[in-house]
Amino acid sequence: MTTPTPPLRYVYAVCRPFDGVLPEGAAGITGEPPRLLHHGDLVAVVDAVPAEEFDEGPLRARLEDLDWLAATARGHDAVLASLTAVTSPLPLRLATVCRDDSGVRRLLEEGHDRFVRALERIDGRVEWGVKVYAEQAAPGRRPTPPEAPSGAVGGRDYLRRRLRERDGREEGRRRAEEAGRTLHERLSAYAEATVLHPPQNPRLAGDTGGANVLNAAYLVPRERAEGFVALTGDMAQVDGVRVELTGPWAAYSFAGIAEEESGRDGELREEGAV
Questions:
Q1: Residues in a beta bridge with 46
Q2: Where is the composition biased (Basic and acidic residues) (predicted)?
Q3: For the domain that residue 192 is a member of, what is the CATH number?
Q4: Which pTM does this prediction carry?
């Protein structure tokens, strides 16, 4: 009879010991509540996961399965969201896996100083995401050149209309870019750190999403959140500009630690950054 392979340990995050418990019903990638593994002055948030999915070979194949990857990311994010309600967790990358509890403890020991520095940086803070778009009119039927006996007058009118449309789009983008710069400066005054991400692919925003001119993350003390959110609301009133605010999140963009842990003895792997 084949001996079942013991489950592995999926590590969602590292945090300091905290009072209270995760919200009732909080569940991770397995559908079960995660477990807190205390080790010294650090806590790892872990889940027991099947080796058949998360051992090195099977995981490589799973990471090519977009449906599986999306479901795993949702479970991962759900745990971080629950943790953020009660503490300031340090997120680890998607698919951070250790062999057993001893491997998790080894991970905490070997990364102790880096984890502590990162936790000090994000303590009492959350991440907010802000995107600014140059709105565009809903797509309509492209005008066709009007027919004219000579073809000259109709063609000129058509070209003039097309040039006006192009100029209007360019002006709208310039207005949105200026609004984005202004908003970023004001939000940065509330934040303790910022990260500018590459603009979002227009295809991800949908046909009427408009050009993404600002895609930023802000690390904000919890007590400043109200003023931060109010600023984004003020800028949302600018004509032709759409502001998208998301959060509060765990400090994904400011962890700066998970990639340093890849390949350490206590850990199997870290792949597929969230």
A1: 11, 35
A2: 157-180
A3: 3.30.70
A4: 0.75
